Amino acid sequence: MDIAVIGAGYVGAACAACLASLGHRVQVGERDPARVERLLEAKSDIHEPGLDSAVAAGLASGLLSFHGNNAVAVEGAEIVFLALPTPSTPDGSADLSIIEAVLRETASSLQRGAIVAAKSTVPVGSYDRMTAILSDLGADAFVASNPEFLRAGSALDDFLNPDRIVIGTHEASVAEKMTELYRSIGAPVLVTDPASAEMIKYASNAYLATRVAFANTIADICEAAGADISDVLKGMGMDKRIGSHFLKPGPGFGGSCLPKDTRALVAIGSEAGFDADLIASVIRSNRSHTDAIVTKILTVIGNTSSPRVGLWGLAFKAGTGDVRESPAVHIGASLIDQGVTVTAFDPMVTKPPAPGFEMAADAVGAASQVDVLVIGTEWPEFADVELGPVADSMRGTAIIDARNIINQQDAEAAGLTYMGVGR
Ligand code: UGA
Fold this sequence. Notes:
Number of helices: 17
Number of strands: 14
Helix content: 40-55%
Distance between the termini: 53 Å
Radius of gyration: 23 Å
Bound molecules: uridine-5'-diphosphate-glucuronic acid
Strand content: 5-15%
Shape: globular
Low-confidence stretches: none
Mean pLDDT: 97
């Protein structure tokens, strides 16, 4: 099929490369000329495993192309995917202005009967808004909701092996064409009305956020009451109704999606006259859990003069260089605000994520002369660092492992005082 993808962020670039790998002709529109240049050389600015080689294969096959002009990219496309940012507005609702601007920019270039499918996470009612805009502009096109569930760090694999494909449309012909596009993937397809499709994405992300916040709350109670979260979660997970996935305690959920989408869901509820207090409390609980880690670090520091903290990890999770709404960055920035010198190392983040961060060249360097060492991101290599030399180079002895990835016995054998989450 002839496809266009507008927006070459991690969702758009991954979708485009995967669709080309399935044999579709994919024209990508991206407004940032520097990003287009890099993608044309198969050197994406996003750290996403396998993305550059998939882009290189798409370019080599001639099926994948990148364009700085969105109107050119949509020419001849039967399906146009919008993979554009929908940032939070100050009241938490999703800002659709980028999507609306792209519709205006491309409407007159859409081929007759084209399907404009929203991959971006868009609030309930966006289908109606997008349909109205296109019809006002005289475009003879359909709108569809086709939320994407891929994760940063495993984007290609998630796209090609999804648990489900959700298509929101009122038109049988649109459902048929979209189902046809994904046929070779072989995943179950759920066709529903557009509002329900839009809601499935928010509800899924809010449920995942709730699981993480729940695990962290139980971890906090375990810590206070003297239980061990690892065994508690193991025991809970053995119940098939619960399962053990997405229940790892940590410094709180972050990233470009879960925080934004939970806020947006509260706003969607409130616009509809419903107080989504459960979701609002998940957001509050997530923030206070992260703040409690900051308090724990400050308590360990006590009255030390010119306190120094080493921070291992800045990305919001392992496998990505993305620091958006990263709890590790929040912890570091809060410490800096309290007058602490923070030296950070992350294998994928080389620039200071916010003012005041000092960057080290490696994990051992970040621990040098610090009073407390904090693990903020669960990069597997942190668990392999030999702790003896780390302990020797530190000024203090405390290690606060906000990801529970360090073996407590190893840390103690190296002379460190170990504190994890929930144990
Ligand atoms: C999330 C969803 O998982 C995807 O399905 C969705 O498509 C995507 O948002 C999106 O809306 O675009 P992502 O933000 O890449 O994906 O990251 P996740 O793997 O979901 O992790 C989110 C946060 O929860 C991270 O900060 C992670 O460290 C934390 N987390 C996750 C935990 O603390 N514990 C867990 O057990 C799982």
